[in-house]
Amino acid sequence: MDAASFRDCQAWRAEGLPLSTSSNEACKLYDAILTQYVKWRNDETLGGIDGCISAIQAADPNFVMGHMMSTGLELVAMGSSTRLNERLASAVRRTVQLANSQDISPRERLHVKAMELFSHGNFFKACDAWEDILVDHPTDLLALKFAHDSYFYLGAQVQMRDSVARVLPHWKPQIPLSSYLKGLYSFGLLETRFYDQAERVAMEGLSLVPDDAWSVHSLAHVYEMKAEIDKGLKFMESKEKDWQVSDVLASHNYWHWALYFIEKGQYEAALQIYDSQIFRRCKASGSMLDTVDASSMLCRLEMEGVCVRDRWREMFQVTQPHSEDHVTIFNDLHFLMTSLGAKESGTSQRLLEGLQELAKGPGDNQQHQLAGTVGVPMCQAFVEYDKGNYGGAVDLLYPLRYHMVGIGGSDAQRDVISQMLIHAAMKSENKRHQKLGRCLLVERDAVRPNSPLTDRLMQKALALHA
């Protein structure tokens, strides 16, 4: 990334996205942060995202959009909640106060409003504010990307696709970062099951920017969802040099690579990627995306009969400090997998009780509203499974299967819950549950034909219930 090419005050004005600051340095740093966010990478020559955030606050301490962006990025990373983190809560308040004391544009005001709504857990309303911006300013990439990530946390798959589709015609090739919209759109297409179109659009993205890690990620999903395992393995290996430079997404792409090995029953190869890449990166970054991936992977391997006990203990050191955050149900479930795997029953209990408590008075927090109907019973199902009460786990999970999308994440990530339900049904003493398990496997086979994992589970069901 060439620092000289970042946009100054005049360049942002020329694009119809003026920023309320007289500091060219602040404008360029805003662009530098946005660029790294879109590319999923910390550029060390710029000092990384954190370095640029410190620099932007020094360049213009009262730059509202600088504050909004840095606070917004911390919120969207989901690693901390304003409920527990006073520093983050006060950063939100300071940004709002700054915005109220200045004559800023309606677009900037909407950005601040969206960030404030998001900080209260009101993700849908935050998305509405970003979409309001995009109606008048379809090339506001920060609004588009914040909305995209938030829809992902909501499991709002159609919205994630359509949000990008609506603005695409306004993006001309000369607009900086325009080619990265291909990856965003491809991911929305993929999550709404337009696999062939998603593959085509992501390939177009990679032909423009070979190291677009999000386009790579979208293709990794396509091959996962279509059970084109060998194609996926070949693709991830051939592109590794390109996507591993995107340090924020690299661990997640390695996770996709490892899933193909689990699918094939090549557990040693999967563990090798877990140890050398996923856990190592997760421990270094502390990122929530890396953390949930590592937890999910151990859970999948354990269901496949692989012993991962020591790895659960290491993983617990990473998740334990977050077990009372309750930022998203999706994160909570993965922290719970780890505390159960590590046999830390006290932490598991506290996590569940904390979620039950928040479900009683959720206020505007969309995830806490969902906790009572979906989050708590889903977490309880994992606890029952861990105790060996497989029938109880089925009774809790089965009624939720078409409501689980609301906890966020992707179809591929939520598949760990579907696998858990199948395993619980197969292991249950209840004959009806066993029959249900076989039905779920037939259904799985219809959606993803040629899946070796499904074939193995079918064999197992036959052996168990012969």
UniProtKB/TrEMBL annotation:
Listed name of the protein: Tetratricopeptide repeat protein 38
This protein's UniProt keywords: Repeat, TPR repeat
Domain of life: Eukaryota
Origin species: Solea senegalensis
